[in-house]
From TrEMBL:
Heme binds at residue 204. It holds the Pfam family p450. One of its GO terms (biological process) is terpenoid biosynthetic process. The keyword Hydrolase does not apply. It comes from Salvia divinorum (Maria pastora). This is Trimethyltridecatetraene synthase-like. Its cofactor is heme. SUPFAM superfamilies: Cytochrome P450 (SSF48264). It is found in: Membrane. One of its GO terms (cellular component) is membrane. The keyword Heme applies. It is a single-pass membrane protein. InterPro entries: Cyt_P450, Cyt_P450_CS, Cyt_P450_E_grp-I, Cyt_P450_sf.
Length: 271
């Protein structure tokens, strides 16, 4: 652990040194989150002073919490959609109607894409990145539902079982984004039947960023490409095994074929 921590610190140190050097060049503007954090660290007016090691810690949080979780969720969404071509088509139809064929999806488009939002919720219901929330400790005797919990008890919340509880969800194991259409259920920690980002004080602090990254990346993948499974793999045969570790990714990476579905000039503008 110590070796790993040292290696990580060396990496973060290099990132900061590079950013600090660029800050001294003429015509400098903030380009990324590290730039913004370094600027905040120079602000003497902050209520809570941000130190240089705090910038490193935030950067590490962003890398650890913000990359794998979003990538894993997008990969599960694509896997579910490849198994259900009718849902795939419905999403593409929404994208064509709202965005058209001549541009990419932007962050501000997301509220106009309720079906894509529903796909993300349904993916997070069936494939929560973190099926067990961070452990909690009861600070006083309490009652949760029918359970008496003594002060000092460690409580583990298993959201995976909540997300597939047949008392809450109809056909809980079926991937069906339509279950969210016209419903108020959200993933922001207020609806206890759907808690992919947890809830309360220890809820994921990066949920807004994570959600935006997932929705925008998925929307653009669906909008920009036709997707198919390679060779003889039939949708119903696609392996959906998962592994449980720091996150819950597919056991075997998803292998797919992508073909452009928008005017070719749009792909050049992405490079
Ligand atoms: C798909 C995206 C993400 C998912 C599904 C996710 C999920 C979670 C969950 C379930 C927790 C535990 C919450 C609890 O126990 O109540 C958590 C904690 C945390 N997440 Fe995320 N997260 C995501 C993205 C991010 C991003 C983008 C960041 C950073 C920018 C981040 C940083 C953190 C941190 C630092 C904690 C620990 C909070 C604490 O213990 O006080 N996460 N996340």
């Amino acid at each position: 652990m110590k070796v790993l921590s040292k290696k990580l610190d060396q990496f973060l140190e290099r990132v900061l040194v590079e950013h600090e050097a660029r800050r001294k060049t003429t015509g400098y503007t903030n380009r990324d989150m590290v730039d913004v954090l370094l600027e905040l660290a120079e602000d003497p007016m902050l209520d809570v002073k941000l130190e240089r090691h705090g910038v490193k810690a935030f950067t590490q949080d962003l890398l650890a919490g913000g990359t794998e979780s979003s990538a894993v969720t997008v990969e599960w969404a694509m896997s579910e959609l490849l198994k259900k071509p009718e849902i795939f088509k419905k999403a593409t139809k929404e994208l064509d109607q709202v965005i058209g064929q001549n541009r990419w999806v932007m962050e501000k488009d997301i509220p106009s894409l309720p079906y894509v939002e529903a796909i993300v919720k349904e993916t997070m219901r069936l494939h929560p990145v973190s099926p067990m929330l961070s452990p909690r400790l009861a600070r006083e005797d309490c009652k949760v539902g029918e359970y008496d919990i003594k002060k000092g008890t460690q409580v583990l919340v298993n959201i995976w079982t909540i997300h597939i509880d047949p008392l809450i969800w109809e056909n809980p194991n079926e991937f069906n984004p339509d279950r969210f259409i016209g419903k108020e259920i959200d993933v922001k920690g207020q609806d206890f039947e759907l808690l992919p980002f947890g809830s309360g004080r220890r809820m994921c602090p990066g949920y807004a960023l994570g959600l935006k990254v997932i929705q925008s990346s998925l929307a653009n993948l669906l909008h920009g490409f036709n997707w198919s499974l390679p060779g003889e793999v039939k949708p119903e045969e696609l392996d959906m095994e998962e592994i449980y570790g720091l996150s819950t990714p597919r056991k075997f990476p998803l292998v797919v074929i992508a073909e452009p579905r928008l005017p070719l000039g749009l792909y050049n503008s992405m490079i």
